[in-house]
Structure formats: structure tokens, C-alpha cells
């Protein structure tokens, strides 16, 4: 593992210049001493998970496998950043591999289920690294696709639509069968959730998701899970490193019981609005350059069409008027 990447992650990543502190009790690093076997270990694993000295393999490249690894220590930090080095690789050709990895910060741990090997209707945050497209109508995005979901225990993850109805944001990222190291970072600070990726061997973070109004309690657990179905891949975690962010909070915030917060997102618009409204995604996303351009283009076309129709109608009227004279 390159040392300079380590230094770079620790010193230069936090954009607001805060000192960062690695929290070993919430971090998983080579050679994973005592993981799962010693009573003092801070990580448990389940299912098809295999711990070697250089990686934690959640699933092998075989069908119908599910595996997970979970931190045994609840996290009481109000502001944190998790850096995950992972590797998704296998012999399957493009589009013939699956299903992906999920990263969790949730109330419950080690609860197997249908969502990338973990339970549905969870309480907390999930980041999905989804490598297989289930929804053949959703051709407006390319896979692998990374997305975020916050759940208060009442929402089902809709596999058939790749979780689209409940996602808070996402991005496409080429994360599979890369020759170089691939990283993802999840930052939660002052109600803001940011997900960044470093998958192009450029040694720099690229923003994937950035949303405000996210409320998550303290006292939840970090974990990672993966699943294969009819199609498969090796889903490996190389490291999970949790850093504490040093952030000032108001006295009111400090005095709140953060363990009692219900996971929620105060979006202006509920993600559920996207279900039956194919334009929902268009409205829900910021007006980027090309969208503004498209809107202007449509407006211009509209004006031109109106102008042409108007001219034709005017011409006809003139002719009709001539006939009467």
C-alpha cells in the first residue's frame, strides 16, 4: 500500500483544514490481527467472508454468496469520515457480474438479508456500490453505480429498480477489474453527507454525492457487506479507516442526546416523488451547464417555431384579404 497515499489521505483530504484523527477502534487494517477469532477483536464477520493477511474477501467469485464484516464498537463521534479501500474483480465479462458492495452505518449489525447481504428496512445510512443493472428501464445511467440511502426502518430497498425510489444521490464509477487501488470516502459532518471516490489512479478525490439536511444518530455500527446471485465477483475490502473530524457545535447541539436522533433527510422533495415521475430526477438535480443549455435550446426552438407558424398564418391572412378586394 503506497505510503504517500496514506500521507495524502491524512493531511490533505479535509478541505476545511481540520486536523484529522484516525480512530483505531473503528478501523480495519492489514494484517487484520485477531479479526473474528480473538475475543478482543473489534470486528466480526459472517457468511462467505474470508480474512487473509492482505484483504478481507466478503464474497468469492461464486454464485449465491453473502458475506459481511462489522465493527463491534458503536461510534459516538458526531462528525466523521470513513475511507474505504476496496477491490471488485472477477472473471465475468462486462455486464455479467454482480451484485456489489454495501457500506453501512446502522443501528443493527450482523443481520443477514436481501440488500447486498444485509437486512432490509434498516435504521441508518447505506452506501451502495452496485455493479449490476436490474432495472432495464433505467438506461439513463451507467453501471457500476454508487448511491446513498438513509432509512428510518420503514423503507424497503427496491432491488428491481436498483434502489432508485429511495436514493438520495449517486454517480457512475468504473470500479471493477481495475489494475490500481480504488478508494471511496464517506464524510458526515454538521448534517451534511458527502461521498467521494478515487478510482482513476489520479490520487485525488472526485465528488460523487453531496447532500445536506441528513440526520444520523451516534451509537450506530460501521460495517460492509456484499452479495452475489446468478452472477458473481470477488468483493474485497482492503481497509476501512475512520477519522474524527474536529468540528465546532453550538451549545444547543452539544446538549442534545444524539443517540436519540431518528435517521432522516429533510429534502425539499422526497425521493419517493421520483417513482412514477420520470422527470423527477431532472427536477431533483441541480441545473448543471448542459441542462441550462438544453432548456435554452428548447426555449429558442419554441420561439422559432412560434415565429414560423405566426409568419405562415399572417401570410395566409394577407392572401385571403387580397382575394376579397
Automatic annotation (TrEMBL):
Locations listed in the record: Endomembrane system; Golgi apparatus membrane
One GO cellular component term: endoplasmic reticulum membrane
Domain of life (superkingdom): Eukaryota
Transmembrane intervals: 292-314
InterPro entries attached to this UniProt entry: ConA-like_dom_sf, Intracellular_Lectin-GPT, Lectin_leg, VIP36_lectin
Domain L-type lectin-like: residue ranges: 20-245
Membrane topology according to the record: Single-pass type I membrane protein; Single-pass membrane protein
Keyword terms, alphabetized: Disulfide bond, Glycoprotein, Golgi apparatus, Lectin, Membrane, Metal-binding, Signal, Transmembrane, Transmembrane helix
GO BP term, example: endoplasmic reticulum to Golgi vesicle-mediated transport
Broad class of the protein's primary localization: membrane
GO molecular function list: D-mannose binding; metal ion binding
Name this polypeptide is given: L-type lectin-like domain-containing protein
Organism: Amphiprion ocellaris (Clown anemonefish)
Amino acid at each position: 500500500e503506497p505510503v504517500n497515499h496514506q500521507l495524502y489521505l491524512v493531511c490533505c483530504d479535509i478541505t476545511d483544514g481540520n486536523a484529522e484523527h484516525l480512530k483505531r477502534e473503528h478501523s480495519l487494517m492489514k494484517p487484520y490481527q485477531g479479526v473474528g477469532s480473538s475475543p478482543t477483536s473489534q470486528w466480526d464477520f459472517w457468511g462467505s467472508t474470508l480474512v487473509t493477511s492482505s484483504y478481507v474477501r466478503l464474497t468469492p467469485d461464486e454464485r449465491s454468496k453473502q458475506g459481511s464484516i462489522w465493527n463491534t464498537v458503536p461510534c459516538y463521534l458526531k462528525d466523521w469520515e470513513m475511507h474505504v479501500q476496496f477491490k471488485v474483480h472477477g472473471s465475468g465479462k462486462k455486464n455479467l457480474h454482480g451484485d456489489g458492495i454495501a457500506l453501512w452505518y446502522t443501528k443493527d449489525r450482523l443481520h443477514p438479508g436481501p440488500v447486498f447481504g444485509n437486512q432490509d428496512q434498516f435504521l441508518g445510512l447505506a452506501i451502495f456500490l452496485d455493479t449490476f443493472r436490474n432495472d432495464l428501464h433505467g438506461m439513463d445511467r451507467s453501471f457500476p453505480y454508487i448511491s446513498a440511502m438513509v432509512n428510518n426502518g420503514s423503507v424497503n430497498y427496491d432491488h428491481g429498480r436498483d434502489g432508485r425510489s429511495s436514493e438520495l444521490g449517486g454517480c457512475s464509477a468504473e470500479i471493477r477489474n481495475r489494475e490500481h487501488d480504488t478508494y471511496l470516502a464517506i464524510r458526515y459532518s454538521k448534517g451534511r453527507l458527502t461521498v467521494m471516490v478515487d478510482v482513476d489512479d489520479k490520487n485525488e478525490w472526485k465528488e460523487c454525492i453531496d447532500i445536506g439536511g441528513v440526520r444520523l444518530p451516534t451509537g450506530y455500527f460501521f460495517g460492509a457487506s456484499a452479495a452475489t446471485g446468478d452472477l458473481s465477483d470477488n468483493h474485497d475490502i482492503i481497509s476501512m479507516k475512520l477519522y474524527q473530524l474536529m468540528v465546532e457545535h453550538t451549545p444547543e447541539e452539544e446538549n442534545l442526546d444524539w443517540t436519540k436522533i431518528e435517521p432522516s433527510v429533510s429534502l425539499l422533495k422526497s425521493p419517493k416523488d421520483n417513482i412514477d415521475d420520470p422527470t423527477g430526477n431532472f427536477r431533483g438535480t441541480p441545473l448543471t451547464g448542459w441542462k441550462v443549455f438544453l432548456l435554452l435550446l428548447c426555449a429558442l426552438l419554441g420561439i422559432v417555431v412560434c415565429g414560423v407558424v405566426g409568419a405562415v398564418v399572417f401570410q395566409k391572412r394577407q392572401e385571403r384579404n387580397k382575394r376579397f378586394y
